[in-house]
Fold this sequence. Notes:
Elements: E1 2-6, H1 19-31, E2 40-46, E3 56-62, H2 87-93, H3 99-110
Antiparallel strand pairs: 1-3, 2-3
Helix pairs in contact: 2-3
Amino acid sequence: xxxxxxxxxxxxxxxxxxxxxxxxxxxxxxxxxxxxxxxxxxxxxxxxxxxxxxxxxxxxxxxxxxxxxxxxxxxxxxxxxxxxxxxxxxxxxxxxxxxxxxxxxxxxxxxxxxxxxxxxxx
Length: 122
């Protein structure tokens, strides 16, 4: 399981608040599960687009592997559903500007990154 979080929340955090801690908090708030946040696998940047007036930086962390959706507790006012996909299925479901992040994350996890984080767009 990887979790990608846009950097918009990061700008409002106190200096001592680590990005990994923010990731764990967001996963718990959005999915109702606790995860152990591992390595930062991919950092990606996206320019302003359509209704989003600012660029964002996305951090993708290794949050382990899940075997099913038991125990998920979705905040109904924010999320209607959750699903698991293979990396190929995820790439087909995601917008074209986000899909390359899936490939980069799979490669990074297989190589036990960080040193020399992979670039999303090669």
